[in-house]
Design brief:
The structure holds two protein chains of two kinds. Chain A contains four helices and no strands. The longest helix of chain B has 32 residues. Chain B is globular, with a radius of gyration of 22 Å. Chain B starts with a helix and ends with a helix. The chains are: A mainly alpha, B mainly alpha.
C-alpha cells in the first residue's frame, strides 16, 4: 500500500537533492562581492523609499494590478477555447465574443473613468 | 450542443440576459452629465427590471431546461424571481433620495443592484451546483461593493470588509462541500446527485462531511446561528436601501438554493442533516429574538429580527414536502413586503442631520404624522406576526406544515420565541403612540418613496386579507418543482 507511493517519495528526494546540488555548485564557483546597490530589492524600476512593508504604495498600482488580472483571466479562458475551436463550431466561436464583449464593456468603462491615467 | 439547443437556451435565459445587458447600459448611462441623471438611472433600471419580469412571465408553464440541464425555469425559480423583481424595484424606488442625502449618487450603484439581481436569478434557476455557485458569487460580489458604498463612512467600510471576509470563508466552505459531493457522486448536477445518493445504502463519513459543509456554507448566507455574527454589523453599516435589499432578496435567494439543494437533491440522506437544521433553527430564533430586545439602533434590531425570521423560515425547510416548501416561499414573499416597507420608513426618517435609525427618533411620530405612523404600525405588527396582517399567515402556514409533519414541540417553541420577538416590535409602536414628540419631524417623503410605501403596505394588507390565494400560487409553484424533478429523473 505505502510502497505504491515510493515513486513519489523518490521524485521528491531527487528534486530536493538536485536543488541542493546546483545551489552548492553555484556558491562554490560564483564570484562573491555584494554591495548596497546590488542588495537592494528591485521595485519595477522605481526607486524604493523606506521599508516595503511600512511604506505607502501608490493606489494606482492596485488599479493597474486589477486590470492586469482581468485580462490575465481572459487569456486563461481564450487558450483552451482556441485549442478546441474546430470542434465547437461557429456557435462556440461566437460565444467567446459575448465574453470578450462583456470584458470590453468593463474595460471601456475603466478607460472613460480615467483608471488608465497615471496621476502622480 | 447543437445550434438549436443553444438558441433555445438563450430564449429560456432571456430575463437574465436582459438584466445583465441592462446593468451594462446603466453603467454607461451613469457617465452622462445631466441634472436629471438620478431620475434617468432609476427609470432605466426600473425599465430593465420590468422587461425582465415580462420575459420571465412569458416563460411560465411547464419546467424548461436549458444549457444541457444545468439551468431550469420552473415554478420555484419563477416564484423566487418574482420576489427578486419586486425587491429590486422597491429598492430602486427607496434609493432615489437616500443616495443624494448620503452623497453616493453614482451610476455604479444602480448597475451593481442589477448585477446582484442577475446573480440571484441565476441562483434561483441553477440546477447544477457550479451554476448555483456562480450565481451566488455574482450576487455576493455586487453586494460586497454595495455594502461598502459609503466610502467615507467608517461603519460602512467596516461592514464591507467583514462581509467580504466572512462571505469568502462561507463560499470556501460551500465550495469544499461541493467538491466532496462531486467526488462522491461524480456529477455536479442536482438530479444526478440525488440519483447517486439514493443508490447508497449507508452514508459514509465522507458523505456526512460533504453535506455538513454544504449546510454550513448555505447557513452562513442565511445568517443562521452560529453563523450570524456578520449580520448585525453589515446591516447597520450598509446604506439603508442596500440593507433592505440584502435582507429580503439575498436571503430569499439563499433560501431558493436551500430549498432546491436540500429538498430536491439531498433529501435522500435527510437523516444526516435534519437534526442539525432543527437545532440551528431553534438557536437562530432564540438568539435573534433575545438579542434584539436590547438593541437601541433600529437597523441593528431589524438585523436580529431578520435572523429570527430566517430561523422561523428554516422550520419550513425542516417540515419539508409540498406544504413546507410552499409555506417558506409564501413567508419570503410576505417578508419582502413588510421588511422593505419597514426600511422605507427608516429612509423616510433620514433627512439632513437626522439619521433616524435610533428607536428614540420615533418618539411621538403618531401625533404629527398619523398616516405614516399607521403604516409603520402595520409593518411592525406584520413583522411581529399579529393578525390580520400578512406576517401572521406567513408564520401560521409554517406552523401548520410543522404540525402536519408531527413536529409539535418545535411548533410550540417557535410560538414562544415569537412571543418574545413581538415585544421589540411593539416597543417601537409604543414609543410612537404613547409618548409626546421630543422634536419636530421633517420626513423625507418623495413621490418614489410614497409609491414604495404604498406598494409595501398594500402587499402586507392584501396577503393578510386573502392569504389563501397567495398560498395557492406558492403551492402551484412548489408543485411545478416536483414535476420538474420527475422529468429530470426520467431524462
Amino acid at each position: 500500500m505505502l510502497l505504491d507511493y515510493m515513486p513519489i517519495f523518490l521524485m521528491v528526494a531527487v528534486a530536493i537533492g538536485l536543488c541542493l546540488f546546483i545551489l552548492t555548485l553555484g556558491s562554490l564557483f560564483r564570484p562573491h562581492n555584494p554591495y548596497p546597490e546590488k542588495n537592494r530589492p528591485y521595485e519595477c524600476g522605481v526607486d524604493h523609499v523606506g521599508e516595503a512593508a511600512g511604506g505607502l504604495f501608490h493606489v494606482q498600482y492596485f488599479v493597474v494590478a486589477i486590470l492586469f488580472v482581468v485580462f490575465d483571466v481572459e487569456a486563461m479562458f481564450l487558450f483552451p477555447w482556441a485549442v478546441v475551436l474546430q470542434d465547437i463550431g461557429f456557435v462556440g466561436y461566437l460565444e467567446m465574443f459575448v465574453f470578450i464583449f462583456l470584458l470590453l464593456v468593463g474595460f471601456a468603462y475603466a478607460w472613460i473613468k480615467g483608471a488608465l491615467e497615471w496621476v502622480s | 450542443m447543437d445550434q438549436q439547443a443553444i438558441i433555445r437556451s438563450i430564449i429560456i435565459s432571456t430575463p437574465e440576459i436582459i438584466v445583465i445587458f441592462g446593468a451594462c447600459v446603466v453603467l454607461f448611462a451613469g457617465l452622462m452629465r445631466s441634472k436629471q441623471l438620478l431620475n434617468i438611472l432609476t427609470g432605466l433600471s426600473l425599465i430593465f427590471v420590468a422587461l425582465a419580469a415580462g420575459a420571465t412571465s412569458g416563460l411560465a408553464g411547464p419546467p424548461l431546461l436549458a444549457y444541457g440541464g444545468t439551468f431550469v425555469v420552473d415554478g420555484l425559480a419563477l416564484f423566487f424571481k418574482a420576489i427578486f423583481f419586486l425587491a429590486t424595484a422597491l429598492t430602486l424606488l427607496i434609493s432615489r433620495r437616500y443616495v443624494v442625502e448620503e452623497n453616493i449618487a453614482e451610476g455604479e450603484y444602480y448597475a451593481l443592484i442589477l448585477f446582484a439581481l442577475a446573480g440571484m436569478m441565476i441562483m434561483a434557476s441553477g440546477r447544477d451546483l457550479l451554476v448555483i455557485y456562480m450565481g451566488l458569487e455574482l450576487q455576493a460580489l455586487a453586494f460586497y461593493v454595495l455594502v461598502g458604498y459609503q466610502r467615507r463612512d467608517a461603519k460602512s467600510t467596516e461592514a464591507a470588509l467583514k462581509y467580504v471576509i466572512l462571505g469568502a470563508v462561507s463560499s470556501g466552505i460551500f465550495l469544499y462541500g461541493l467538491s466532496l459531493v462531486y467526488g462522491l457522486a461524480g456529477t455536479t448536477d442536482l438530479m444526478g446527485i440525488a440519483a447517486s445518493l439514493s443508490a447508497e445504502e449507508q452514508p459514509g463519513p465522507a458523505l456526512i462531511l460533504a453535506i455538513l459543509f454544504l449546510i454550513t456554507g448555505l447557513l452562513f448566507k442565511l445568517g443562521a446561528v452560529p453563523f450570524h455574527m456578520w449580520v448585525p454589523d453589515v446591516y447597520e453599516g450598509a446604506p439603508t436601501p442596500i440593507t433592505a435589499y440584502l435582507s429580503v432578496a439575498s436571503k430569499a435567494a439563499a433560501f431558493a438554493i436551500v430549498l432546491r439543494i436540500f429538498l430536491e437533491s439531498v433529501i435522500q440522506v435527510e437523516n444526516i442533516w435534519i437534526d442539525a437544521v432543527i437545532i440551528i433553527a431553534v438557536l437562530t430564533m432564540a438568539v435573534g429574538s433575545f438579542v434584539a430586545l436590547v438593541q437601541t439602533n433600529i437597523k441593528r434590531m431589524l438585523a436580529y429580527s431578520s435572523i429570527a425570521h430566517a430561523g422561523f423560515a428554516l422550520l419550513g425547510v425542516v417540515a419539508g414536502g409540498q406544504d413546507g416548501v410552499s409555506s417558506v416561499m409564501l413567508y419570503l414573499l410576505i417578508y419582502t413586503f413588510m421588511n422593505v416597507g419597514m426600511f422605507a420608513v427608516i429612509i423616510m426618517m433620514r433627512n439632513g442631520a437626522v439619521r433616524g435609525d435610533e428607536i428614540d427618533d420615533y418618539t411621538g411620530l403618531a401625533t404629527s404624522h398619523p398616516v405614516w405612523a399607521l403604516l409603520t404600525l402595520i409593518f411592525l405588527f406584520s413583522l411581529a406576526g399579529i393578525p390580520p396582517t400578512a406576517g401572521f399567515f406567513a408564520k401560521f402556514y409554517i406552523l401548520v406544515a410543522l404540525i402536519d409533519q408531527g413536529y409539535v414541540a418545535l411548533a410550540v417553541i417557535a410560538v414562544l420565541m415569537n412571543a418574545v420577538a413581538a415585544y421589540f416590535y411593539i416597543r417601537i409602536v409604543m414609543v410612537m403612540y404613547m409618548k409626546a414628540p421630543s422634536r419636530h419631524f421633517d420626513l423625507a417623503l418623495t413621490p418614489m418613496l410614497r409609491v414604495s410605501l404604498i406598494v409595501a403596505v398594500t402587499g402586507t394588507v392584501a396577503i393578510g386579507i386573502v392569504p389563501g390565494w397567495f398560498l395557492d400560487q406558492a403551492q402551484n409553484a412548489a408543485f411545478g418543482t416536483q414535476q420538474a424533478s420527475i422529468i429530470g429523473l426520467l431524462r
